[in-house]
Amino acid sequence: MTSAAPEPPDARAAELVAAAVLGDLARRVVADCGADVGLVGVPDGPDGMVLRHWAGTRADLLHNLRVPAGLGLGGRALAERAPTWVSDYRAATTISHHYDAAVGADDLFAMLTVPLVHGGTVHGVVYASLRSVVPFGDVRIGAVGDLARTATRALAGAAAWAGGPAAPARLTPREHEVLRWAATGRTSPEIAARLGLSGNTVTGYLKGAMHKLGARNRVELLVAARRCGLIS
Q1: Phi and psi (nearest 5°) for 33?
Q2: Which of 8, 46, 51, 123 is deepest in the core (most CB within 10 A)?
Q3: Can you tell me the distance from the alpha carbon of 193 to that of 135, in angstroms, rounded to the nearest whole number?
Q4: Cα(46)–Cα(168) distance, rounded to whole angstroms?
Q5: Whole-model pTM?
Q6: What is the pLDDT of residues 165-201, one digit of tens each?
Q7: Contact predicate 135/89, CB 8 Å
């Protein structure tokens, strides 16, 4: 009697594993690193992230907040792929202040952000925040960094198990826009008419997205894009 062939990796299960890892990361930043609030942003499209996991928050303005690359402290860490921190977020002059209302609603001051990077792919950004003005020392930065590295290895493993990337490919803004319209079921001529482009140009953008996501046709493209979080 021959044994049954192993089932292929379940992408949905891998997504659940990733969500559990990131949720635990937010909690451990508070429990293990002495932060008052832990947040984790996950990639959202080709040029930003959304805060999906949190621990210790009092308000909800930071929940599900979208942060484009380069904006705020977390957006800066996302863009630069390097840890960033400030002892007093509200008085900091090295970051944009697009999110002062959300930060103020939770009474946060000191903030550290660490990107989750593996093999050149950014899997997210973890935040460690305090409700006081405190300079970040090497011990706390190192502790958060260690948690970030452990979580990133787990995310990379889940992505490999699922057979695909956990973070979206670097599509251009126009490729992403055309992809979103394709996900609504519009044909290439319909997308071209809506965006004021030629049909060949739309086809070119879709082919570019296919190449970056390893898809051979539109159906595979949409499946891959949903798996990566490029479209809902």
Answers
A1: -115, 5
A2: 123
A3: 54
A4: 6
A5: 0.67
A6: 444 557 888 888 999 899 888 899 999 999 999 989 9
A7: no
